[in-house]
């Protein structure tokens, strides 16, 4: 697990390693840039050392390019992971100065944006996930762009977390407390699990 604090956001992360394994195949990442932050959660296929190695390869690639388009980052991960188990992942680039977030997901890492203030539209935005495996079966990639404002909170969770966690979310909850609560209440216990909660603060670097 790797999370780097960003002045643009407040982060909370919680992880669970499957009993009997020494390392987790789930990784979380937050990297600041001049115009916002790259946020990602990666789930190596399966569990154990091979899953962790695949996730770490993707993590390294994402960490080198926080300002690059998210589609390009996923494509580069795909090429680097062809000889591995592969990963599923969801990632977002938060561009707070322009009030936008660009996100996409391959596989089953759930992504949910909870809005801190409702002016128009819905309180919750769900990331559209595309079936596939980065490193094995990459689908046609299309990123979505949604408006964001300070006070919104982004949640990513791997498939070691039951999907009903989405009904318990609030943009008002402290990110670290939220991540820990979700992990403790909704983890399946049959796989590695990771929850990343990221509140957009609007502070500049």
Summarize the model shown.
The chain is an alpha+beta fold and 205 residues long. It contains three helices and eleven strands.
Describe the structure in your own words.
The chain has 205 residues and is an alpha+beta fold. The protein has a single domain, classed as Phosphatase 2c, domain 1 (4-Layer Sandwich). It contains 3 helices and 11 strands. Strands 2, 3, 4, 5, 8 and 9 form a 6-stranded mixed β-sheet that branches. The chain has a 5-stranded antiparallel β-sheet with strand order 1-11-10-6-7. A hairpin with a 2-residue loop joins strand 2 and strand 3. Helix 1 (49-63) crosses helix 2 (70-80). The model has no long low-confidence stretch (mean pLDDT 90).
Low-confidence stretches: none
**Overall number of structural domains:** 1
Helix content: 10-25%
CATH class: Alpha Beta
Total helix count? 3
Number of strands: 11
Keywords:
205 residues, globular, 3 helices, alpha+beta, 19% helix
In terms of topology, how is this protein built?
Layout: E1 9-16, E2 26-33, E3 36-44, H1 49-63, H2 70-80, E4 87-95, E5 100-106, E6 110-114, E7 124-126, E8 129-130, E9 144-147, E10 153-157, H3 175-186, E11 193-200
Parallel strand pairs: 5-8
Antiparallel strand pairs: 1-11, 2-3, 3-4, 4-5, 5-9, 6-7, 6-10, 10-11
């Amino acid at each position: 697990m790797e999370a780097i604090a960003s002045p643009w956001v407040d982060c909370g992360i919680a992880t669970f390693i499957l009993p009997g394994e020494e390392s987790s195949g789930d990784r979380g990442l937050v990297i600041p840039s001049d115009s916002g932050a790259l946020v990602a959660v990666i789930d190596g296929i399966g569990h154990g050392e091979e899953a962790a190695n695949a996730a770490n390869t993707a993590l390294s690639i994402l960490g080198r390019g926080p300002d690059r388009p998210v589609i390009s980052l996923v494509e580069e991960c795909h090429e680097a992971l062809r000889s591995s188990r592969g990963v599923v992942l969801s990632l977002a680039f938060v561009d707070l100065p322009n009030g936008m977030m660009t996100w996409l997901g391959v596989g089953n890492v759930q992504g949910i944006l909870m809005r801190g203030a409702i002016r128009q539209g819905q309180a919750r935005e769900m990331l559209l996930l595309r079936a596939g495996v980065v490193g094995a079966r990459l689908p046609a990639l299309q990123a979505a762009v949604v408006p964001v404002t300070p006070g919104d909170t982004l949640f990513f969770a791997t498939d070691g977390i039951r999907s009903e966690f989405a009904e318990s979310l609030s943009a008002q909850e402290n990110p670290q407390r939220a991540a820990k609560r979700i992990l403790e209440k909704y983890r399946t216990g049959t796989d590695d699990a990771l929850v990343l909660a990221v509140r957009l603060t609007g502070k500049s670097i």
